[in-house]
Amino acid sequence: MARKEEAPNMVERFAEFKELKNIDKTTMISVLEESFRNVLAKMFGTDENLDVIMNPDKGDVQIFQNLEVVPDGEVTNPNLQISLTDARADDDPDVEIGEEHTKEIFFADFGRRAILNLRQTLQSKILDLQKEAVYAKFKELEGELVSGEVYQTWSRETLLLDDEKNELLLPKSESIPGDFFRKGETVLAVIANVDNKNNNPKITVSRTNEAFLRRLFEREVPEIVDGLISIRAVARIPGERAKIAVESFDDRIDPVGACVGVKGSRIHGIVRELRNENIDVINYTSNPQLFIQRALSPAKISNIHLDEEEKKAEVFLHPEEVSLAIGKGGLNIKLASMLTGYVIDVYRDTPEEIDEDIYLDEFKDEIDGWVIDALKDMGCITAKSVLKTPRQELIDRADLEEDTVDNVIRILRAEFEDEDAPATPAPAAADTAAETSTEETSAEAASEEETAAEAEEKPEA
């Protein structure tokens, strides 16, 4: 009886792994059974004729060996066979040759070495199971926000520990310029990558990933979590500046105002977490011309020419607006390109062109308002910007009929031809006056010559 009491105690000792490693009961029982079978297979050569029964409610284990009954003296493998006499002596008096005899065995009978072997096997399996569980857990959390306590800092990376003491690695390249962490400090980051090479999970976190900015906004703006506001695009230059495009699914909600908060209450917390990184929040639109205009804010654009196939945009601005569009160190135009997905080139409108050009709104008496709005939506704000755009491009991008486009071009061209017209007859009038003056001068000269001739002839008479 003493031997039978040792097995439950042994299982209870193994159960401490469940408490320490936070493994669920079902998985723990499965691991225990597999560990027992592995050790028994090494001891008996096979585990095919062994039944291992785990009793989680009682906390014990029962092991049964199924042996073939053979005549006395014909046992060739004691791990698979048993003689008739031994089988009948083992509480099975009615057994016959060829039948199966089930014999209970006690693991504690195999001594200290077998128990240590079982414990080591169990430790190894639970460690592998724990690593697999950590990998599966964090793999599902890729792109999500996580916090960790600084445990150690090296030159190239910082080691963080989460609440469950899992190791999180924050490389220097994934840190915001200016980040400086002290031991014990809590750091926010986003899970960037989870690798499980050689069953050794490696969790890499990032503070420069654009997902980090998204998650910070989700944490500060309840409307995003509720699905009333959507983050459509994000562009970041970590530690410097960022642009984020948001869209509202409720007409009563201003997405930009909701993200910024009253007096900037919501966005200030995000800016502090990003080491005073400037953040521009803009309204998203599916219209690429208007989206580019908003992305280049605070610069005011005169005209935009798009090549949607090549994803290129030519932006024309007044000279004083060019520096605003480019931004300090080229950050504004670079972020606008990242946000919109277009390669943006900036061009200056010359003063002469600005003075001579006319805004389309001045033609509302001759051109329908909806046509002007369609042209403005494609980036053509002035008359000359329309005339510079190829006719077919106006038809396709503004979605206008050919006759409508031809009528617009005719009206706009006529305006500039009318401006040039007065300049043409002026030189002609001057020439006519000059010719008239010359003829009058010649006539007067001829008259004077005739008078002089008559005067000379009179004395001779």
From TrEMBL:
UniProt biased composition (Low complexity): 422-436
GO BP term, pick one = transcription antitermination
The GO terms describing molecular function are: DNA-binding transcription factor activity; nucleotide binding; RNA binding
Which residues does the UniProt record annotate as the domain Transcription factor NusA first KH? 207-284
Can you say where in the cell this protein is located?
Cytoplasm
For this record, the Gene Ontology CC terms, alphabetical, are: cytosol
Q: Where is the composition biased (Acidic residues)?
A: 437-454
Domain Transcription factor NusA N-terminal residue range list: 10-132
Q: Which UniProt keywords apply?
A: Cytoplasm, RNA-binding, Transcription, Transcription antitermination, Transcription regulation, Transcription termination
What InterPro entries would the database entry show? DNA_repair_Rad51/TF_NusA_a-hlx, KH_dom-like_a/b, KH_NusA_2nd, KH_sf_prok-type, NA-bd_OB-fold, NusA_N_sf, TF_NusA, TF_NusA_bacterial
Mind telling me which Pfam families this protein's record contains?
A: KH_NusA_1st, KH_NusA_2nd, NusA_N
In which domain of life is the source organism classified? Bacteria
Q: What region holds the NusA-like second KH domain? A: 288-350
List the residue ranges of the region (Disordered): 416-461
**Assembly information from the UniProt record:** Monomer. Binds directly to the core enzyme of the DNA-dependent RNA polymerase and to nascent RNA.
User: What family does the database annotate?
Assistant: Belongs to the NusA family.
What does this protein's UniProt record list under function?
Participates in both transcription termination and antitermination.
Q: What is this protein called?
A: Transcription termination/antitermination protein NusA
Source species of the chain: Duncaniella dubosii
Q: Tell me the gene name.
A: nusA
